[in-house]
Amino acid sequence: MKREERQQSIINLLVEHKSVDLDDLADRFAVSKMTIHRDLDDLEQAGVVRKIRGGATIDAGMQFESDFRIRERQGNEAKLSMARRALELVEPGMTVMVNDGSMAAVLGEMLLQKRPLTLITNNAAIIERLKNESGITLIALGGIYSPKFNAFLGVVTEEALFRLRADIAFISTPAVSGTLAYHMDDNVVRAKRAMIASASKTCLLVNHQRIGHTALHVMADLSAFDAIITDSTPEPAAAAQLERADINLIIASD
């Protein structure tokens, strides 16, 4: 098996199991542990995995979010349920902002149901899917392309956003703790903040499994959002804290 094929197989195993064991991989592919170490080093350098003692994981950490290629294959039902609820906040004729991320990509495609719309996004998956669709005025934000996030980021992206205004912005996050939303990448944080500042209304999208977790950077206070949509009810303590803070939490499964 070629190295590229073996590494893709490792990615497939991580999507299914979320973590892999170095010894098991060496046995599975009939190669040395050193070869597997090099494979995991390559995948970590590409931002696909996070190496841990004895193996690797795709679970988010304080400074790690898995590659878009991993995330787009995870939790599809949760993404669909959140996107459907988010779609209820959109009316034809609106100008809508959608940020990076696999969750946002699902919503981006659903927005076709609400055309005509003006759609502003830095999400390359949405740009590719909607670029030839009638009834969509697509404003694709430029910037430096990030393969890890499949999005355009940086100063060019932020400057473009400062010159635009939307009726609503949909922002996704990999971590919420207390009344704060977090992200592990500073370029992504700046782009999301610019979208928040450039929209009349904002909606945060977060998987309930990410509530109760932090990341390296504080992205925003939850009070900055008009609504927060999650797929299922979070843990009781987290839900109670959000209720005490008078946060408008929408449970998509209700």
Question: What's the short story on this structure?
Answer:
This protein has helices at 3-17, 22-29, 33-45, 68-71, 76-87, 102-110, 124-130, 155-162, 186-197, 236-244; strands spanning 19-21, 50-52, 55-57, 95-98, 117-121, 136-140, 144-146, 151-153, 166-172, 175-177, 180-183, 199-205, 217-221, 227-230, 249-251. It is α/β, with parallel strands linked by helices.
Features:
7-stranded parallel beta sheet; Arc Repressor Mutant, subunit A; 24% strand; 3-stranded antiparallel beta sheet; 254 residues
Topology:
Elements (H helix, E strand, L loop, with lengths): L2 H15 L1 E3 H8 L3 H13 L4 E3 L2 E3 L10 H4 L4 H12 L7 E4 L3 H9 L6 E5 L2 H7 L5 E5 L3 E3 L4 E3 L1 H8 L3 E7 L2 E3 L2 E4 L2 H12 L1 E7 L11 E5 L5 E4 L5 H9 L4 E3 L3
Parallel strand pairs: 4-5, 4-9, 5-6, 9-12, 12-14, 14-15
Antiparallel strand pairs: 1-3, 2-3, 7-8, 10-11, 11-13
Helix pairs in contact: 2-3, 5-6, 6-7, 8-9
